[in-house]
Design brief:
The structure is a homodimer of 332-residue chains. The first copy, chain A, has 332 residues and is of the alpha/beta class. Chain A has three domains: 44 residues, no CATH class; 124 residues, Response regulator (Rossmann fold, 3-Layer(aba) Sandwich); 131 residues, 3-Layer(aba) Sandwich (Rossmann fold), CATH 3.40.50.2300. Helices cover 43% and strands 16% of the residues of chain A. Chain A has twelve helices and twelve strands. In chain A, the strands form two sheets. Chain A has a six-stranded parallel β-sheet with strand order 2-1-3-4-5-11, with helices on both faces. A six-stranded mixed β-sheet of chain A has the order 7-6-8-9-10-12, with helices on both faces. In chain A, strand 8, helix 10 and strand 9 form a beta-alpha-beta unit. In chain A, helix 1 packs across helix 2 and helix 5 crosses helix 12. The first copy, chain A, binds a DNA duplex (30 and 30 nucleotides) through helix 2 and helix 4. Chains A, B: Keywords: DNA-binding, Transcription, Transcription regulation. Chains A, B: Pfam families: LacI, Peripla_BP_3. Chains A, B: This is LacI family transcriptional regulator.
Chain lengths: 332, 332
Amino acid sequence: MDRAVTISQVAALAGVSTGTASKALNGRGALRPETRLRVQQAAEQLGFVANAAARSLQTGRTYTVGMITTDSIGRFSIPLLIGAEDALGAGQMSIFLCDARDDPIREQYYLRTLLSRKVDGIIVTGRRTQARAPIGVGLPVPVVYAFISSADPADCSVVPDEADGSRRAIRHLLAVGRRRIALVTGPEHHHSASVRARAAEDTLAAEGLRPAVPTLYGEWSEAWGRQAAGILLSTGADVDAVFCGSDQIARGLAEALTKAGREIPRDVALVGFDNWDVMVEGCQPPLTSIDMDLEGIGRTAAEQLLAAINGTPAHGQHARPCRLVPRASTAV
Amino acid sequence: MDRAVTISQVAALAGVSTGTASKALNGRGALRPETRLRVQQAAEQLGFVANAAARSLQTGRTYTVGMITTDSIGRFSIPLLIGAEDALGAGQMSIFLCDARDDPIREQYYLRTLLSRKVDGIIVTGRRTQARAPIGVGLPVPVVYAFISSADPADCSVVPDEADGSRRAIRHLLAVGRRRIALVTGPEHHHSASVRARAAEDTLAAEGLRPAVPTLYGEWSEAWGRQAAGILLSTGADVDAVFCGSDQIARGLAEALTKAGREIPRDVALVGFDNWDVMVEGCQPPLTSIDMDLEGIGRTAAEQLLAAINGTPAHGQHARPCRLVPRASTAV
DNA sequence: AACGCTTAGGAAATCGATTGCCTAAACGCT
DNA sequence: AGCGTTTAGGCAATCGATTTCCTAAGCGTT
């Protein structure tokens, strides 16, 4: 545990004033190249690292951003975080991660903390059931919502275009020759579930088709997928494909259908949603799925935040397209 | 975007000096209760939040810690992070999350950044095949390794006692009457795989038993689990239980065994490792598993870090016991 | 030689909060 | 009434780096 090195020590070693040392290290001012070099070597020798607090006190910038996950840090937050880090890391910014755990009190507490730390901006994220209330109004720093969206249209939100994902899934199933397509998804009150289902239905309708059976709403679990398989089988409906609201549902369905003697994809083709590695690869056969490109969303959100920090804020909701990743569960 | 409120504005509004305002807000000095209240109300009214940079410049403490994940932020990092946040949040500290992505250059870069931000301490985490080299020597702040351990025994590491987990798994299988137990796990060169396997073998040996077949090493995947099932069946060995090195392996095994007509747990009991919710619950039947209590490890690591920050550092490797979570796959 | 101009680098203010020291007022005591 | 003691709160230094302004030295020119 050494003692921290300050710029005055560097200046002293190089035989200059602290002001000159600062200029030398930051490439400012008019200095002889030789002096500059001398200071840099002194800094190197002492292992000098500038105190960020002192610097930000002077400059007003901290080069930090806060990331508040409103519900718990989960599977979805990781790629978002990685994407954001990518975009920010290049600009040398650090991220404060705050897990509000779906508690408004915690959320406001974290917001306060971030403001006291004078972050340059804030990214708000979380799994969405629907648009959320803005985290604050008249905040002294820009805020960008990622994955989740703000109810205030003046706020900047970056979200996946889930309807686009659904359309891709349905078009893909149609392209591989399926026509009797069923939809199995999560809770009806969940924004993602209803948006995805509706877009799928609309895409079918555009082809003059309807779901093979009325859309089945349930939960986001494998258990529900298995249960839904039973329901589908029991109706006797002649289904040749199922578009699922999540990979977990798809996987449960795959398991139960296989057990009941249906062969995937020959008898029934399957498409999931999320493209969650362990699920799509663990599924038998491997699962075709829709990828929301969460990393891209994280990256875009961070870029929007940087733009806002630099004075050119974007507004409104930015929907990013999804991507279909074909695998054996829909192979022709 | 309001302008930030400083303590001088609060002081002015309350009609006192900045020094007095500071004392009033921090409960220091000798002030009339009435004055204190007046300042507090002024602060409230203006929405004053102290500038953390200015404060830390003066006090030397930043109330922030850095968390560096050496390999990518993954499934294991989340509970660790949550645990750490728990322990630190209570003490009002914030966490800088840095993802080094298994790149030593990035790692050193992040270390530098954290030091410039004068974090009070650093938690290093990551999944590793074995103990890692210390992240730095003679650092000006305390460091605690979580989940992963440092090769330097003088460093403080908090890790799961994986051997303990294995013993619990084997004892549980013995307790439910199994004797012909097979072991299927990850790559032999992977520290966790070998430690878990060896502890399991030793526990069996202590009962005068040996694994039903030589330990099968492979990868940490469901695919390997399925493949291993095939191997077990083909040897014709009369196995009545399998202890797997991960939940994914166990799940693959469960699927393949069921398909081959074996009933779980009647014919073969299964124990996994990690207690990963989606795996243990998705498995049919639900999987008995070993929980390493990652949240507890994160919490303990943070507590150790706080202790070190407060001047009483711990040294050496602290192994924390695991927990067996019984489910249907080993039900009697 | 005297003047003006450029260049290199120093001195000091500044950012915002904390804190040690000091002083004026109020109080109690003889 | 006078003196010592307590109390309340102000003043100013401080943390470390940046930045503006300023000055001294060095140069060329006539």
